[in-house]
Amino acid sequence: MCELPDETRRALDIPADILALDQVQMRRLGYEVVDRVVEHLTTIRDQRALTTGDLEMLTAQLGGPIPREGSPISENLATLADIALANQQHGDHPRYFARVPGPSSYPAILGEWLATGMQSVASSWGGGSGPSTLETITCGWLRDGIGLAPSCEGVLLSGGSMANITAVITARAHQGQGIIYLSDQTHSSINRGLLAIGQPAEHIRTLATDETFRINPLELQAAVQTDLENELHPMLVIATVGTTNTGAVDDLPAIAKLCDSFNMWLHVDGAYGGPAALCARGRSAMPGLEHADSFVTDPHKWLFQPYDIACLFVKTPGALERTFAMYPEYLKDVAGGAVEMQNRSLELTRRSRAVKLWLTFRSYGLETLAAAVERGIGLAEYAQYVVEQNKRLEVVTPAALGIVTFAGVDSNADDHMRAAAQLNEDGYAAVSSTVLKGRTVLRLCTINPSTSTGDIGGTLARLAHFLT
Ligand SMILES: Cc1ncc(COP(=O)(O)O)c(C=O)c1O
Fold this sequence. Notes:
Radius of gyration: 25 Å
Bound molecules: pyridoxal-5'-phosphate
Number of domains: 2
Helix content: 40-55%
Number of helices: 17
CATH class of the largest domain: Alpha Beta
Strand content: 5-15%
Structural class: alpha/beta
């Protein structure tokens, strides 16, 4: 019998429990994390909405050479919470109104922890039948709650950027290469994604939106006809329900009709606005969702989930698998079950993002979630009302799907940027500016149900003060 080589022996002498912690220690550290998070969530109103740290200070406290020896986990947890995680935007703060907030909920956080702790995996059926079933069920609940076509199949991805581009890859596999139509209000991540997947810039048509920031279907039709006359192939229209800038909703029934007549794929980006369709007011603001050939929505925006989770739906059964399926020799023994989530996008190893969303739906129920979403719509309408009462401010675009934009009367672009920066630095609230048809404006996105009318009033009063 031949001897084991020395180096193998030495490797096997390393204790098997080298990374293990004892039960008591694990529980104590776990409770420390729970205590930290509960403290964060229950005192958040008294904390800053956003803190941007100093690079040198952060690097000094978090960096140094690669640690050769370990140090107490409890101390390291404190450093993470007090330094790294304190220096960021708190998208879950009731006065965080900038860009798109991320008001996550406690059941969703628990679901995320549980899934992580149990090394959840939703790749193959053989290796993740439970999580894969959760994903099918949860996507189905979301599809039906939003009112998409019943044949839609879903897959969960990291965010709107990845989900939208996965939709485009699927559409292109189905329709062939061709011209893609979008608007000047389409989220910029889509244009970036299109170029990254090799869509020629000269085959992207960016349509100027009308005065309500929506695609004009007549201009879309004209652009399609011009391309046909030039013997090009109109392939895909990307519409948005709930644009990031103003909450505008493209005219889906009219655009869907055009897509039908010219055999184009209709993709709808509802990354921001999609969850609003869970409540009656939101649903009535975006008719025609059932026409979407593919649809994206981000539960980590307006459905109270911690980052990250986006959902892509595709109406033609099997289209995702036809685009992404692979059956290499090393996956044959886990493949071939009910659903292979690994074959619905470019992700192979993927954690179960469905766990947190499933727990949220089950724990709150649709009615409570819809009411929480509806409150966000109402809060933007309240903000509009407060702006209208303030002589120093004027509404630029009225409240739409939780977003209102406004400006200081007689204030210029720099004044607006400065006012936003001052408020953010002050820490009371976080707001952002944007540019609408050349005009710099301020914008509130009010989708956190724990925001009070006092929070809105206090934020607008401070902004009006900083503007003058
Ligand atoms: C309408 C819209 N689409 C896409 C995205 C990109 O989503 P993510 O940041 O999750 O990648 C956003 C982000 O704000 C958005 O508002």
